Amino acid sequence: MKFGIVVFPGSNCDHDCYHVARHVSGQSAEYVWHRTAGLKGLDCVILPGGFSYGDYLRTGAIARFSPVMAEVERFAKKGGLVVGICNGFQILCEAGILPGVLMRNRDLKFICDSVYVRVENAKTPFTSSYREGRVLRLPIAHADGNYFTDGDTLKRLEDNGQIIFRYSTPDGEVSAEANPNGSLGNIAGIVNRGGNVLGLMPHPERVSEEVLGSIDGRGIFESIVRAAQARGTHLS
Amino acid sequence: MEITPSVIEEHGLTVEEYRRIESVLGREPNIVELGIFSVMWSEHCSYKSSKVHLRNFPTKGPYVLQGPGENAGIVDIGDGLAVCFKMESHNHPSFIEPYQGAATGVGGILRDIFTMGARPVATLNSLRFGSKDNPKTRYLLGGVVAGIAGYGNCIGVPTVGGEVYFHESYDNNCLVNAMTVGIVRKDRIFRGTAAGVGNPVIYVGSRTGRDGIHGATMASDSFGTGGEERRPTVQVGDPFTEKLLLEACLEAFKTDYIAGIQDMGAAGLTSSSAEMAARAATGMEIDVGLVPRREEGMTPYEVMLSESQERMLLVVKKGSEEGVLEIFRKWDLEACIIGRVTDTRRLRVLDNRIPVADIPVDALTEDVPVYRRPSQRPKWQDEAISLDVKSIPEPSDFNAVMLRLLSSLNISSRKWIYRQYDHMVRTDTVVLPGSDAAVLRIKGTDKGLAVTVDCNSRYVYLDPFTGGAIAVSEAARNISASGAEPVALTDCLNFGNPERPEVMWQFENAIMGMKEACVKLGIPVISGNVSFYNETSGHSIYPTPTVGMVGVLKDLKRHTTVWFKEEGDAIALLGETLDEIGGSEYLKVIYSRDAGLPPRLDLSVEKNLQDACREAIRAGIIRSAHDLSDGGLSVAMVESCLSPQGPIGAVVDVPSGNIRKDALLFGESQSRIMVSLMEKDVKKLGDIARSRGVPFRVIGRVGGSSLNINGLVVLPLETIADAWGNALARFAG
User: Fold this and answer.
1) What residues does each domain of chain A span?
2) What is the pLDDT of residues B645-701, one digit of tens each?
3) What is the residue-wise DSSP string for A4-71?
4) Between chains, do B419 and A113 touch, taking CB under 8 Å as contact?
5) Distance between A157 CA and the closest CA of chain B, angstroms
6) What residue of A is the nearest CA neighbor of B157?
7) Angstroms from A87 CA to nearest CA on chain B
8) Second CATH level (architecture) for the domain A2-231
């Protein structure tokens, strides 16, 4: 299968995602410049972490107007797999491809740390390698990861099983103490209604190799590969 | 504008220096020329007071590809790769405006690395703030840390390590030293040379504004009260633009277009143009009328002296102009031709084709004034080092002392700081902050790098020679305890006013001590920076020659961390504990004394210790290794117990012989490393230690839910974790 990693001005986890897609997962991968109008031949598009446009104005607010985003939206509508990690999640929310917003962290500081998240739904193309309820130790690195949405949307997300990851204790308890940034309902990651677009604040690409101390994040890439291969042909 | 004595003085030039300018030019300089001379002859740019002493450093070695004199030093690490690094200070700007001062310090050192063709892979920093009782300390700490985070996180280079100390000598002059490490292909190294007469000179990056004019001159002066008034001389950073500049430069380096490149750091366009021409023994002609500007009405003087950030000067091969401009335009950056390389060995500046300055290049670079300033041992030195140890009572409650030490600002966990830095981006950080050194993998090889920064300035204050030697030795010990072989160092020499003989004495002796250690341990100095005039209202900081060091792990898998791994493992001490408490953190925290002589250092003993430690790690028998430094054995034990993977207890019983119990627990004797290993490997380690003449003794076992040292310190893990883990966060909030 083939991954495409979008490069916005200011993306800085693009190389890391490419590395895992290409060298750890052993799949094809290519960088997609943000002015590109076309996602030909791709099975999964990753919007990587970083500070697109310096986070100026608001995280993701400028990047959502990059030409590639209209393509990403079309690609998602056709059922293509899209993953937004950290800044990529913020961009997907700004573009309205995912519901909700990511506000400044509760304590107003940038947080780089390892946290625990519980897998809430293992029946998605991004989480099928995990067992439901499994607790993963994943790194976060953001100043704006405080997820918020209105009550109705939250209810819809919950009813439809769109909440994929919640911050939890190592034992899997979703509690206030386990919430690093103030996210509503401890939400760390969600999918769209169609289940083919994932946005998450933690960085799975940082824990996909033994040498980095953990492979808890690799399951996301493995799930994607499995899902794409099951589909056989690419969609774009 | 008329050049009056007061104008000359405002430019930080002495009467003699002004006479010299007149004689170089054969006439009176105009104001543009005076400005150019003043920044190039400033202490910050010219090293005029330090040059004669810096020559003492060993700068060559079999692996050194680039020593001091370029934007950064470079060392060969095999596999066709090289590591490029340098450290720089941004002290004065950070004291005036902590966020922007620290942020642009990081921005500047990053540019020094990628201008050499290297991809920056890690940043470190060394910080000094005033005492915790100074109301300004908390503000400066918060601002500086946020500034480093704001810049480093955005550009996507992990901040993997550092050190922070609090001491009243920095009350009115904090220190912010930043170091960047990059990786470059050996055959793709770029240098700051204006090679090729007739080649075009291209300006790229941000537009030029009025910020930072005379920053270098400010950094070469002492503060009186009210340094805040100088805020307009502090530059404002834009890490987003620098990220674009980084990627655009690295893209341009893949072509054959570039003949030379240099970042516009201190003294901006002036120093980059003059230094590039000097290195190539050419000349340069630039027209400031062509320089992109942020605001209208800027004079040639302002354009030449601006220190606006995120700018680079390129000399490109004739005919490749369009190709280069296209790359920078792709990244939405300003790029334009502003001049050409000449064969005149003069820097000629035009303003819309009208000449405004014409100066021999060598007069700005090679032939700057050089001073051998008078030096004298301070009168107060004897008093400082006198310490009647008998007058220091041994504590009756070692647990209480232990907890006070653990919760003191200089000992406690730094997590509150590094949690604000993205230390994992680029996915190379194998050992995260908190160990003796950060360890990075090098993708596509089996190799790794270990990186650290170090300086105990109290030691340097009490005995500059020994303190300088210890700074180098301790950095190397951190590298060795991680399993890596130290390959080279960079330094940032922060001192007071060099016009004071006492400061020069500290400077000279610290350098000689560092040199001695470098020679004995075989570690060359490949780059560095001097920051003088760290003095406010006549009070100098403690002399602080910070050392940044890089080591290479041939086999990344064979690295170690400070943390205990398994219950039942044996704990052993390599090295000898002497009856020393002089200059210790213990003496400062418990008795409020900076006194006595610092710990003794025998460099042969040090070398043997480090060799033995690395050999044992290479042999695969060491599970954890930790250098003993601030707070001695007991603090090292705590740090080894409090693993990020979960705390683990330990029981040790160290024979005290004839030494004081507080020296045993908290003394800072040099050349000691505590290791843990499986019982079955103890004999092997003993053999390695013996073969190198290193004292070795098993002192206890890993395990349990408390820390027990000789029955004197007996504390549950939760108690030490809280005291050590939360003190800094409680202070900084």
Assistant:
1) 2-231
2) 999 999 999 998 889 999 999 999 999 999 999 999 999 999 999 999 999 999 999
3) EEEE-TTB-SHHHHHHIIIIIS--EEEEEETT----TT-SEEEE--B-GGGG-SSTTTTGGGSHHHHH
4) yes
5) 30
6) A12
7) 11
8) 3-Layer(aba) Sandwich (3.40)
